[in-house]
Amino acid sequence: MSNYHIKHLEEYYQVYRKSVRNPEVFWEEIAEEHFMWRKKWDNVLSWDFTKPEVKWFEGAQLNITENCIDRHLYTRGNKTAIIFEPNDPKESAEHITYKQLHDRVCRFANVLKEKGIKKGDRVCIYLPMIPELAISVLACARIGAIHSVVFAGFSASALATRIKDSECKMVITSDGSFRGSKTIDLKGIVDEALEDCDTIESVLVAKRIDANVNMKSGRDYWLQPLLDEAYHDCEPEIMNAEDPLFILYTSGSTGKPKGMVHTTAGYMVYTAYTFKNVFQYREKDVYWCTADIGWITGHSYIVYGPLCNGATTIMFEGVPSYPDFGRFWEIVEKHKVNQFYTAPTAIRALAKEGVEHLEKHDLSSLKVLGTVGEPINEEAWHWYDDNVGKKKAPIVDTWWQTETGGIMITPIAFATPTKPTYATLPFIGIQPALMDENGKEIKGNQVDGRLCIKFPWPSMARTIWGNHQRYKDTYFSAFENKYFTGDGALRDEVGYYRITGRVDDVIIVSGHNLGTAPIEDAINEHPAVAESAIVGFPHDIKGNALYGYVTLKETGESRNHDNLRKEINQLITEQVGPIAKLDKIQFTAGLPKTRSGKIMRRILRKIACKDTSNLGDTSTLLNPEIVQGIMDEVL
Ligand code: WTA
Q1: CA torsion 156→161→165→171, rounded to 10°?
Q2: Spatial distance between the Cα atoms of 105 and 111, rounded to a whole number of angstroms
Q3: Best of 292, 499, 507, 514 to mutate for ligand 1, by most ligand atoms within 8 A of CB?
């Protein structure tokens, strides 16, 4: 018997030891007993972090949608796979059974084929959280097309960059989306993006808001008539274990987003196994992750992980504040949610509204609470524990990344004693290491350092689309023979990990990773701007907010600063998206720089955080005089 379901702490330690002493035997047992293979592997694992190259289950053949859908048809055909909860609570929820999901995915897959999509082609999905989003993801996987989901809050220019980078042949979108009381013209954004993309052959448009949209003849097609005509069954494409399943873009420290490539077998095994254990999912449970499928959390823990376990997973189209701040709790009560997984920024926003919204609803179905995306502060942790979980539902603080594909450091619900603000212990098979600045591993407890992973795990990203060198430079060059996460962490006296945050140029705002470079690029395009630097500063709800230091080409009072601020934020909205707008913009005479010309963000960060007691030695700067001026005018 393999150890597919871990139930208590001793079992965790025992299975963990087995998974690190003999990873190949361990993962082979898990893969063998719990998944459907068309052909078994020849080799469980081969790896070399210096290239870097990692292969899991090489030689195996499978289709992930057979694991997520087909194999449940006999045992759970009439069980609800997906509950769609619309933006407007007056619109009724939709329950999609495994049988219906099979039918809808197959029809969609046949439409893709009819429009010329083949194995290995890239398909960009730019959709709101409606069933077509999950269905189109699975339809791509069904025929071996590589999906690239772009979060439907990104701007036309961000969308175009992603379409071009992976040379997508098709975009799947909708006539628009609902967001609280507003609607968003998604099709218009796609049209604008496509002005400048020449690889797109067709655009499929789902109807959601009944908007009047432009349909370009020969390129744009309404989805529903095509689905209605399509055949309801579609043989899955047989994929190799290491064939790419999807590309998902994440911000980096340079302007260009990184298209992280995830492959098929290892990703499937690891997301399914973590889902089952971290959340302790049981057959009749209803699970809800509030993330958007545009992010990795949605890929792994709304779609693939839950469906692979035959779970019932909720897709919520709306926002926590519409029609009021009780919406999440109304949904928990309505669908009797057992596992609830959200982000610290949402918890803080809800906590600010007080407990009266909670008190109106019966939350007694909740068994497990989860959090992801950024460090959770102690206050938010306790609010979640006291008021949502009533101290009875363990909080799984799950640390992981787009790059890791699945949850890496986390409590296992009911097994691992939780500790506020701690992600606690490495998941089965995960071997973390804390490193010092000289590249040496720091052993022992009560230490802190840079968080690395020493050994491959099945769901790690294999490369950056079209740029393997960048993959190597970003993740495998800082520390020899180790994957570097970009995060700092500390290990307490019993070996629990607490993630302290990014140590690079990525700032997490409301759970969204934002690289400073693309935002600075957008600002610098303003004709009046000479230079700029972005840093994060603490914000009660968003976790971090953005602070921009901007140097103008011409100083003096000739320009109206308030107008400039608006124009700068407008440029950012167009090029990156509204989530990257700056909360504060300070115009400065210059930016502090090292003698080699590097902007000293560390100093700027401290000033923005109003923590200027220990700025360090500024006398070695190229322009030390600039610092006092910036401090005098800090916002
Ligand atoms: C941060 C999200 C503290 C971290 C799945 C990581 C966290 C980045 C946690 C990845 C957590 C994620 N505690 N920090 N529980 N979870 N992070 O790629 O800095 O959107 O590197 O993946 O979010 O964000 P990404």
Answers
A1: 0
A2: 10
A3: 499
Pairing relation of β-strands 170-174 and 61-62?
unpaired
Answer positive or negative: Cα dihedral of 274, 276, 277, 278.
positive
C-beta of 301 in contact with ligand 1 (< 6 A): no
**Amino acid letter, 591:** L
Using the structure block, give the residue that is written with the tokens 């797109």.
Answer: 200
CA distances from 278 to 95, 105, 273, 510 (A): 25, 28, 8, 23
What separation in Å is there between the alpha carbon of 278 and the centre of ligand 1?
A: 16
Asked whether 69 and 307 are in contact (CB, 8 A), the reply is yes
CA torsion 354-356-361-362 (nearest 10°) is 80
Judge contact between 125 and 107, C-beta under 8 A: no
Distance, in Å, from the CA atom of 335 to the CA atom of 309, rounded to the nearest integer, reads 19
According to DSSP, the β-strands at 146-149 and 244-250 are: parallel
18-47 residue pLDDT tens: 999 999 999 999 999 999 999 999 999 999
* Amino acid at residue number 328: F
Q: Which helix (H) or strand (E) holds 68?
A: helix 64-68
Q: Is 80 exceeded by the pLDDT of residue 598? A: no
What does the DSSP assignment read for 554-622? S-STTS-HHHHHHHHHHHHHHHT-GGG--SEEEEES---B-TTS-B-HHHHHHHHTT--TT----TTSS
Q: CA–CA separation, 62 vs 81, rounded Å?
A: 21
| Edge-to-edge strand list for the sheet holding 94-97 | 94-97, 80-85, 312-316, 286-289, 339-342, 368-371, 395-397
Is residue 424 in contact with ligand 1, taking CB distance under 6 Å?
Answer: no
pTM for the model = 0.92
